Amino acid sequence: MSDSIINLSYNIPANDFTFAGEASSNVKKMLSQLGINPMVIKRAAIAMYEAEINAVIHGGGGIADIQISPEKIFICIKDEGPGIPDVEVAMQEGYSTAPEYIREMGFGAGMGLPNIKRYADELQIDTEVGKGTTVKITININ
Amino acid sequence: MDKYFHSVTLDEGRCRGCTNCIKRCPTEAIRVRKSKARIINERCIDCGECIRICPYHAKKAISDPFESILSYKYRIAIPAPTLYGQFKSNYTRAHILSGLKGLGFNEVYEVARAAEIVSEATRRIIEEENFLRPLISSACPAVVRLIQVRFPNLIGNILKLESPMEVAAKIIKKEIINKNIAQPDDIGVFFITPCAAKVTSVKAPYEKARSAVDGVIAINDIFLKLTNAINSIKPDKSLEQAGFEGIRWASSGGESLALGSDKHLAVDGIHNVITILEEIEKDRLEDVDFVEALACVGGCLGGPLTVENAYVAKTRLKKHIDNAKKGHVAKHIPFDKYEEIIWTSDLKHRPIMKLDEDIAAAMRKLERMEKINMELPGLDCGACGAPSCRALAEDIVRGNADETDCIFKLRSKVRDLAMQMAELEAKMPPVMDRNMTNNEGDDRK
Ligand SMILES: Nc1ncnc2c1ncn2[C@@H]1O[C@H](COP(=O)(O)OP(=O)(O)OP(=O)(O)O)[C@@H](O)[C@H]1O
Ligand code: SF4
Ligand code: SF4
Ligand SMILES: [Mg+2]
Fold first, then answer.
1. ∠ CA B384-B388-B391 to the nearest 5 degrees?
2. CATH number of the domain enclosing A136
3. What domains can be seen in chain B, in order of their start residue?
């Protein structure tokens, strides 16, 4: 049923920390207006936040597309940045290529991707060096 | 008790509907309707932000009148340490506490003393490593309520220990009864409060069925009387029982400092508190075991019912802290088990933002809301009585407002209507139409 799906789309500006996290915080607000279980909201909000921040910091900005149905939340964060050479390595806790100035801002602990994995029910990362990265996250509502 | 008792209320006569308060409210609980502010009861957390912001003093806090102490035979005052910061620094705590007795209280017990007990219990909980990181202080009831309505995932992080106010009331009541000084029914314990949130927490407690406090008197209600009493009484030094650790609780950072570890974070001001709670919810706060979060800027010294400026009060409190350091003060009242002061009931999440019980219906409303929001001017001007354009869109789908409440929407509607009228006006009935302005029904062409 197409009328019971909410489609949202946000622009994720590159390297702009004043807006970083805005899309996920909007989505979080909407999920609580839908009365979704707080734990599910938390998982969706963190997973999306981490992917969004990655697009800001590593991906040169991108686009977030979200679909919410009564059964699940689907989040797709797409950038046209440098891509990830070795996803398996990038998924490891503590692995980060974030430069010093980013670390000073409190990012770059190498926990983003592992956290996304931890909180997502399904995770798919499509990436190609020089082309970009697409992170697809599914969170089941029930 | 009312389902949602609130100390914060509106003084209708004073309210001019200026819309100053609607934007400050951290839970978007205020709307202006018919030129009067309305508080949405389910949403209000009694933080008192609106009391502070209102230029016409139309928001007030209901507390008990001083005379209500007369309905008890044996009257005990339990002052918040914030009270000490309200007086010129040549008055010692002995002056202030004796002054309270001069006003008609049979006994005084410093809440600061009970604060030391809560600190001790907190240290033990942290030592036992028996908690969700980070532990969030429950000292400020406005913050606890904020968590209840906006941060349900953090309910488990709340330090479930009774507040120093409750602990003080419990201890002193027990003592008076054990010593056979008065009968339980004759004892009235009165908290001298810096804020509305504490009044609500006594009248409608969340941590247990019934508060041990019998009445709550606002600092700004008692201040003048107390000043007079202090000037006509001999100070009794023996009333000073609390140590500096407890007195320090009045100021932001005081509760954390008492824990003796640097893995703490102290945040004050309700909007700053929200920022930190959001960080915690995102799992982004590292290396912090304890978060002290107070709704008022500066901590309780900045409470909405105080009389002195929070920064001035802080300097004054410092004197009391230093004096307590020097003087002989009772060390922590020892107790073996902190179980006695653990909450007996728990918080339940109240989803105030939910648009509908049914998720499919909520989704339809959300979609409509987004559509309406897109068409609003996005100025967040407040003229519609809602805190933002988005909030108006939400009110519309909830059936509590109309699109034309937006003055820009109203204007464009009026313009459309005016144009339609002008068009209509220009049309002539065919029998009178010499210039053939009305071509309808004209088949000659
Ligand atoms: N969208 C992306 N484009 C390019 N590289 C990426 C992208 N997302 C992640 N990476 C790479 O994967 C590494 C690990 O990402 P992860 O999110 O786990 O950690 P981080 O972003 O470095 O630090 P943290 O998320 O803890 O702030 C990054 O340092 C980066 O090299
Ligand atoms: S007390 Fe706080 S929550 Fe209640 S209406 Fe005022 S600003 Fe809003
Ligand atoms: S910070 Fe203190 S004075 Fe302010 S609302 Fe909380 S408990 Fe009351
Ligand atoms: Mg990251």
1. 90
2. 3.30.565.10
3. 8-61 (3.30.70.20), 66-341 (3.40.50.1780), 359-426 (1.10.15.40)
